[in-house]
């Protein structure tokens, strides 16, 4: 704990804002927005919505800001980053993730966390999170992307299968295909599928590679990227630049 009389002060990155939101059912979230410097394009900013904001938002936002300064070199154009956070004050974040990111019960009989609330979470994104973000900045509704990791990656695939109209670009990192293997018949190159070289738990790497080979059918091939040397926890951070290029339309 810092001495309150020291010259240290709380640090807040510039051009980032956050607000709380509550659903009609009483579920609480926070939504953060990180905006590029300068005026927005005529149609608004391209945007990337980041699930698991407590883990990934700051890393994605900082990398987006740094790489967008040289888009001709990095392939990352300026874009707004929207983070969706579970509110820690209402209980376990891991319980909240398991509920919000899954459409079906867990296949493992000893699983104790809640599940099956993904449709309600989709309504929250569409009816509350996205409108709140558009109040903070002009955003292009035709150029928005979604990124999720692990159970969040499974949510991305399930949402692509059920509501392909919601986002123009999709990024699923290390999706939890051990939970369920969704049938996605529109998994073309709008989808970036990423994983770590060292993801051996629950046969993750083999499952993801097999799903990518079969997804979408003939003529529909997702982009597949492997992070060399990365495990399940580090893979999303290693793949952030690739994810940002994908969200930018590169």
Automatic annotation (TrEMBL):
Residues 1-15 have a biased composition (Polar residues). InterPro entries: AB_hydrolase_fold, Esterase-like, Siderophore_Hydrolase_D. The keyword Hydrolase applies. GO terms for molecular function: hydrolase activity. The keyword Hydrolase applies. Residues 1-20 are annotated as: Disordered. Pfam families: Esterase. Keywords: Hydrolase. SUPFAM superfamilies: alpha/beta-Hydrolases. It comes from the Bacteria. Belongs to the esterase D family. This is Alpha/beta hydrolase-fold protein.
């Amino acid at each position: 704990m810092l001495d309150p009389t020291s010259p240290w002060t709380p640090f807040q990155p510039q051009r980032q804002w956050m607000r709380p939101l509550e659903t009609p059912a009483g579920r609480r979230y926070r939504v953060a927005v990180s905006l590029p410097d300068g005026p927005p394009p005529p149609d608004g900013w391209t945007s990337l919505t980041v699930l698991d904001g407590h883990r990934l938002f700051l890393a994605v936002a900082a990398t987006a800001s740094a790489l967008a300064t040289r888009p001709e070199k990095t392939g990352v154009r300026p874009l707004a980053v929207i983070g969706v956070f579970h509110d820690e004050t209402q209980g376990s974040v891991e319980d909240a993730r398991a509920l919000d990111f899954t459409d079906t019960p867990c296949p493992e009989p000893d699983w104790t966390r809640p599940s099956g609330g993904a449709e309600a979470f989709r309504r929250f994104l569409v009816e509350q999170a996205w409108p709140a973000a558009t109040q903070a900045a002009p955003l292009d509704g035709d150029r928005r992307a979604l990124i999720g990791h692990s159970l969040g990656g499974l949510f991305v695939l399930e949402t692509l299968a059920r509501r392909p109209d919601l986002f123009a670009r999709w990024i699923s990192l290390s999706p939890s295909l051990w939970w369920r293997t969704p049938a996605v018949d529109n998994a073309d190159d709008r989808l970036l599928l990423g994983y770590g070289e060292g993801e051996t738990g629950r046969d993750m790497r083999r499952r993801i590679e097999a799903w990518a080979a079969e997804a979408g059918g003939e003529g529909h091939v997702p982009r597949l990227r492997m992070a060399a040397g990365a495990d399940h926890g580090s893979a999303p951070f290693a793949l952030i630049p690739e994810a940002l290029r994908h969200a930018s339309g590169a």
